[in-house]
Design goal:
This protein has three domains: 117 residues, Alpha-helical ferredoxin (Fumarate Reductase Iron-sulfur Protein, Chain B, domain 2, Orthogonal Bundle), CATH 1.10.1060; 167 residues, FAD/NAD(P)-binding domain (3-Layer(bba) Sandwich); 150 residues, FAD/NAD(P)-binding domain (3-Layer(bba) Sandwich). Strand 3, helix 9 and strand 4 form a beta-alpha-beta unit. The chain is α/β, with parallel strands linked by helices and 466 residues long. Helices cover 35% and strands 17% of the residues. The strands form five sheets. A five-stranded parallel beta sheet has the order 5-4-3-6-18, sandwiched between helices. It has a five-stranded parallel beta sheet with strand order 8-16-9-10-11. Strands 12, 13, 14 and 15 form a four-stranded antiparallel beta sheet that branches. Bound molecules: flavin-adenine dinucleotide and iron/sulfur cluster. The site of iron/sulfur cluster has 16 residues, from helix 6 and helix 8. Iron/sulfur cluster (SF4) binds next to helix 6 and helix 8.
Length: 466
């Protein structure tokens, strides 16, 4: 260990942009056995590992699995990294590590942080490829838990309950499981086979998965509380926000999720004619977060003639990950900063005119961010065939929730006790984006795990007392 002076930090190899744009495949090639060992061997094994204690929302045992893989013990590294995390190979791919574990790494101070995310993804990929399996005990208890929503929060809750031998039935309204891992985050960031492989593990562990079952429409929430000993609600937050400007109801102005979902459906089934085709069209995406980056990079691959991003602040203040921003630039996306839209209308040449104004950043507001100020007399037109709105998400109401005692806030987000994941109604637990608002996969995973631990404690205690 501690070979951080002679050995440089390495990122997984990235395909050249010309290669990447040919399809929707992942752009990174994760480490082989030799590379993963060499990179893990750079770790200094800090006494107080900030990567774990401050950086990782799951408090993963990072130094321990780095040491195990550096010692050539793939099986130990695999088991350790799957101990605290419900899907390390997914999080290693899509966590914004620069803000989390790698940003907290002691070596991120001139030497180059340990490439924790890439090592994490590679360990589980290599272990699965070598035929290694995770231990699940099978159903050992009479109790059962209903999980509503198969996104990262639901998957994580199910994973930890199954590992404790508790039966889990998962209800998902979509035709495939995975939530935004399947129908949001594009394949070039997370290959869909990786999500499918995790569901195979969960099903083998005893998960009963009910697809195309919308709770509140096909089955009442009340029925689940009657049939199960506990219910976990992880329905996410995918209702796109509008810009609230004139002309945004135009048919060529579409919501980010509608575009990404239609494209992914078509990739699953090439006969499915996607509602939205951007081929040879001029596409403008409004927004500066990760969803905007994903729409831009999808449109480039989807054959758009020109793809631009409009963002009302500057590059430094973009909320999205810097890594994905640079990937978008490499792939040919144009960025227009300090621009705010005020109206969308159709022009004579059949193109849309997005009337925009220039902005500047002013005083800091209460949330610590500088306020956006419009610069007068700067209105001008940016033309587009298709405009995609990527401006954030709200929670869609869950039918029947108002007939329970589950408290929600003014935005419709489910309120829970942050230490236990319990809602204000006995037996009902929650977590993920429907509690936090649009957030990160790793935080949804941490919420699902916390709720599972509370459910286990409550149910198994009940058993002891009966
Ligand atoms: C385009 C995009 C890119 C992103 N990229 C990243 C990234 O790179 N890294 C990162 O960390 N995060 C990223 N995120 C955020 C991340 O995907 C979410 O924070 C995470 O998926 C939240 O997990 P969840 O389980 O709470 O909700 P979701 O993933 O939204 O899953 C909720 C599930 O519940 C189902 N559901 C809803 N209502 C019902 C009902 N009534 N009955 C049955 N099922 C129901 C939904 O169909 C869905 O499958 C991205 C988000 C988007 C939109
Ligand atoms: S889960 Fe995310 S933050 Fe935690 S170690 Fe993995 S990549 Fe880092």
């Amino acid at each position: 260990m501690q070979n951080y002076i002679d050995r440089q930090r390495q990122e997984p190899e990235k395909l050249e942009p010309t290669q990447r744009l040919k399809n929707f495949d992942e752009i990174y090639q994760f480490f082989n056995n030799r590379q993963v060992r060499k990179q893990a061997d750079r770790c200094v094994q800090c006494g107080d590992p900030f990567c774990t204690t401050i950086g990782c929302p799951l408090q993963n045992h990072i130094p321990q699995w780095l040491e195990a893989i550096a010692d050539r013990d793939l099986e130990r590294a695999f088991k350790l990294s799957n101990e605290s995390s419900p899907f390390p190979e997914i999080l290693g791919r899509i966590c914004p590590q620069g803000h989390l574990c790698e940003g907290a790494c002691t070596l991120d101070d001139g030497f180059g942080a340990i490439s924790i995310g890439a090592i994490e993804a590679s360990i589980t990929d290599l272990a699965f490829a070598a035929g290694m399996q995770l231990p699940f005990p099978g159903n050992r208890h009479p109790q059962s838990v209903a999980v509503v929503g198969s996104g990262p929060a639901g998957m994580s809750c199910a994973h930890f309950l199954l590992r404790a031998g508790i039966q889990v039935e998962m209800y998902e309204q979509a035709d495939r499981p995975g939530g935004l891992l399947t129908y949001g985050i594009p394949g070039f960031k997370l290959d869909k086979s990786i999500v499918e492989r995790r569901f195979k593990v969960l099903r083998q562990a005893g998960l009963k998965l009910h697809l195309q079952q919308s709770i509140g429409r096909d089955i009442e929430l009340k029925t689940l509380t009657e049939q199960h000993d506990a219910v976990f609600i992880g329905i996410g937050a995918t209702q796109g926000r509008k810009a609230n400007i004139k002309g945004e109801d135009h048919p060529e102005v579409i919501m980010a999720m509608d575009y990404l979902t239609a494209k992914q459906r078509q990739l699953f089934n090439p006969d499915d004619t996607a509602d939205v085709s951007v081929r040879e069209k001029k596409v403008v995406v409004i927004g500066g977060g990760d969803t905007a980056m994903d729409c831009l990079r999808t449109a480039v691959r989807d054959g758009a003639s020109q793809v631009s991003c409009l963002y009302r602040r500057d590059e430094v203040n973009m909320p999205g990950s810097a890594k994905e921003f640079h990937n978008a630039i490499e792939e040919g996306v144009d960025f227009c900063f300090n621009i705010s839209p005020r109206e969308i209308r159709r022009e004579q040449d059949n193109l849309l005119c997005i009337e925009v104004e220039k902005t500047q950043l002013g005083e800091k507001a209460e949330d610590g961010r500088q306020q956006v100020e419009i610069i007068p007399d700067t209105a001008h037109c940016i033309s587009a065939d298709i405009v995609i709105l990527a401006l954030g998400f709200d929670v869609a109401p869950l039918n029947g929730l108002d007939q329970t005692e589950v408290a929600t806030d003014k935005w419709g987000q489910i309120q829970i006790d942050p230490n236990s994941g319990m809602t204000s109604q006995a037996k009902i637990y929650s977590g993920g984006d429907c509690y936090r608002g649009a957030d990160l996969v790793v935080n949804a995973a941490a919420d699902g795990r916390r709720a599972a631990l509370t459910i286990m404690r409550n149910l198994l205690q009940d058993t002891k007392h009966t």
